[in-house]
Design a protein that fits this description.
It is a single chain. By secondary structure, the protein is an all-alpha fold. It is about 75% helix and about 0% strand. It has one domain. The chain contains seven helices and two strands; from the N terminus they run αβααβαααα. The protein has a two-stranded parallel ribbon with strand order 1-2. It is globular and about 55 Å long. The two termini are about 20 Å apart.
């Protein structure tokens, strides 16, 4: 077993926990639908976060050729999945609230600041992650990566600051479209 294979187990577990929380949260929404008031912006962020968890797992494979793994590098690589896992926890009420009535609009705006700060952190970590893979790799991502990362960061920061519903409606849809476009433009192949 290579070092990458060994270390990828923990990364995969953390990402899988995030996916489990997102899918479990959707299951809770369906089970308790009579006591749950769905908010479409929240639902779009569920999709956005699930896509990001999948993309993070997909992109992690790009570390497979790392010749020397240090503990510090491993801890750094753990940051991204940990951030996404924490975001998955914030996006949903606690699992113990299954019997309670929940308004997802109220929950979303009560927790939007922490959620979007985590996404801002993820964007910054992703840039450093790309740099750590080497300057040639970073430059090969092209201008669309730089523009996309900048737009994500600014948009996430604004979403953390504002409770303006129109902004959140626009940004949720924009983020989804942008993520899909960038995914096909930059990370459509595993290698």
């Amino acid at each position: 077993m290579s070092a990458f294979e060994y270390l990828s187990v923990l990364i995969s577990i953390i990402l899988a926990l995030g996916m489990t929380r997102v899918l479990g949260g959707v299951g809770e929404m369906l089970q308790a639908r009579s006591r749950r008031r769905i908010y479409w912006v929240h639902a779009v962020w569920i999709v956005n976060l699930f896509l990001y968890l999948v993309i993070a797992w997909w992109i992690f494979y790009r570390w497979r050729n790392q010749p020397q793994w240090t503990f510090l590098l491993f801890v750094f690589v753990l940051i991204s999945p940990t951030i996404l896992y924490l975001a998955s926890l914030i996006l949903f009420p606690p699992e113990s609230a299954l019997d309670k009535s929940i308004d997802y609009k109220t929950h979303f705006y009560a927790n939007h600041r922490a959620f979007f700060i985590l996404l801002c952190m993820f964007t910054v970590v992703d840039i450093f992650d790309s740099l750590l893979k080497g300057i040639p790799h970073f430059l090969a991502l092209g201008p669309q990566y730089f523009v996309s990362s900048s737009v994500y960061f600014v948009g996430e920061a604004m979403a953390a600051i504002t409770q303006n519903e129109r902004y959140h409606q626009f940004f949720a849809i924009f983020y989804l479209i942008q993520t899909i476009v960038i995914s096909f433009a930059l990370i459509h192949t595993l290698v």
